[in-house]
Design goal:
The protein is of the alpha/beta class. The chain contains four helices and six strands; from the N terminus they run βαβαβαβαββ. Helix content is 35%, strand content 24%.
Length: 130
């Protein structure tokens, strides 16, 4: 496994489908998605179950209490099997080649420990660079 996408979500139903669709639309395919459902009370668990059923790269783990973001992410990282960790929030959307570009960069620059990507702000239907 090359990449483990680690996400923690608490009541993230509003953008969760868009986030998962952007992950599953990546041009790079050797990844797993570790999602920690941090005791959601909205439709998040149903959405996660739907996507996990569609794609076996999606692995959902549910907290029995709300552990908050940091502890949930640490749990996800401990479950990850990839060479690299890609961090995403439940309201992030990736461009289709994000994983491919970051993987190639990390593989050709072994002296690099951390990489990140440029982000854009999506507000009221408008996309603007930050």
């Amino acid at each position: 496994m090359d990449i483990s996408v680690v996400t923690a979500v608490h009541n993230g139903e509003k953008y969760l489908r868009e986030t998962l669709d952007s992950i599953l639309s990546q041009t790079f395919g050797n990844f797993e998605v570790i999602i920690i459902d941090d005791f959601s009370t909205d439709k998040t668990p149903e959405i996660l179950a739907e996507y996990a059923k569609k794609d076996d790269r999606i692995k959902v783990f549910a907290n029995e209490e709300n552990l908050k973001l940091a502890r949930s992410l640490n749990k996800g990282i401990s479950l990850a099997g990839g060479k690299y960790i890609v961090r995403m929030d439940a309201d992030d959307i990736c461009l289709p080649d994000r994983f491919e570009k970051q993987f190639k960069y990390m593989e050709t620059h072994p002296e690099t420990d951390v990489s990140f990507c440029k982000y854009f702000l999506l507000q009221d239907g408008e996309i603007s660079p930050c």
